């Protein structure tokens, strides 16, 4: 049975299982990435103002533009600032509520789980529209707040969007952490409880260290999500003039492609994808050593 | 002493959860209330309580506005999302199953590429996909949004875990001895054992496609092909010129999230169990 390096058995079946996904993955994942890289190496040239545009190989010219593009790097800085604040706050809240649900101190846990998870079913666009109305000075139910602090002004609007993202994803992350907590055998806590440790002590010294893998996973997904921020700022452009067409990296990609300057937009895309990949992969590697079993 | 302390912690815990529930539910409550008001009462009345109940009229106005384009958007969303999630789940299940149950050359490589795919977010692919589809002249079509939405690397990753956990190797051996072909065994036995996991994959794939925004935004120019998110977005950008759209955007938002919320309520046990799996393994 377990021959060393025997010929692969069931070749036909394996091909049948793997190929449909493999082909689509190659066509709509790998190929676009490759094509974007190729496109990013070209520049559009015209002999004079009236001559037809011609694509010629430009080497790394577009990347030169990307790296000297002030608004793009400001947008990268903006989402990084956003992530550094929003991700810990959201995951902290998710962890707190998950621990409370798991502590046995809370009644009606089922209701809270459902209620907190519900916003995950709300598309980012719809969540942003909803909160946009709630923030706007004359429509909001909280006029006393919105008329004294302009939540859509240049200084605040980034955090107004952070609140939208937190609202959508906090319950989703809570459920991931909570189901991880449920999988920990309760005997582990018994000894601590017999030693007189209270719920807070147990949560801090036992549960939080044990739940680290779930926190790593949620952090990686949150990092990816933050760098990709698009729907919320795009919607907020209708509510606030402070949100420019280059407010986040993905908005820059979109507005560059609608100029249209596809070659530069492709270069932005490649840089952004690489940055996302490097950040999330780096974070994973930093915290995990286990691969395919 | 002990019980007083525990009463204190119980109250504190419930207080935190209560405040949090208020934060989560308030915007939805506001949306529900707003969707029941007619245009005049939308601003003049208490935003958090009902005035004259005009919900039915609002829905009628929404469904008839511009020849019922909203219904078309909902239909498009269901077609894009349901179709892509169904096909995507099947393909992910097959590929994940093969990764878990067979040893073949290139298996590790395939697994690592797929895992890399999980880390490359869909939005980063939208523009490259647009370039590919414009190369073959297929932008602004149903397929330009539908086909890329089928591919779900995270689903493959999850299916690989589910197959490993729920389909015993001995069972496959037994099926082989009985003379059942590999493909037949998958469809008659293995996929049934994996079913709860597959529902989870389907559910999360469904949400991801339903919520996707950049891909249709970049691909589609024809309003009649829009999914509902893109449709509501375009209406919202026109609210300043056409104030009557404001009410429609709100009622449309409510109607567009209702099906997903209901689906999540009905399928609770699948997402509850399934969400943990990704983290545990």
UniProtKB/TrEMBL annotation, chain A:
The entry's keywords: Cell membrane, Membrane, Transmembrane, Transmembrane helix, Transport
Keyword Transmembrane helix: yes
Topology within the bilayer: Multi-pass membrane protein
SUPFAM superfamilies the record matches: MetI-like
Main localization, broad class: membrane
ABC transmembrane type-1 domain: residues covered: 76-283
Pfam families: BPD_transp_1
Transmembrane portions of the chain: 12-38, 79-102, 114-136, 156-181, 210-231, 264-284
Location in the cell: Cell membrane
PANTHER family linked: BLL4140 PROTEIN, DIACETYLCHITOBIOSE UPTAKE SYSTEM PERMEASE PROTEIN DASB
Similarity comment: Belongs to the binding-protein-dependent transport system permease family.
The protein, known as: Sugar ABC transporter permease
Organism: Phytohabitans aurantiacus
From TrEMBL, chain B:
Main location class: membrane
Keyword Membrane in annotation: yes
Entry membrane topology: Multi-pass membrane protein
Subcellular location: Cell membrane
InterPro entries (UniProt xref): MetI-like, MetI-like_sf
Pfam families linked to this entry: BPD_transp_1 (PF00528)
UniProt keywords, alphabetically: Cell membrane, Membrane, Transmembrane, Transmembrane helix, Transport
SUPFAM superfamilies attached to this UniProt entry: MetI-like
All residue ranges annotated as the ABC transmembrane type-1 domain in the record: 74-267
Stretches that traverse the bilayer: 12-32, 78-99, 111-136, 142-163, 193-219, 245-267
Family listed: Belongs to the binding-protein-dependent transport system permease family.
Protein name: Sugar ABC transporter permease
Organism (species): Phytohabitans aurantiacus
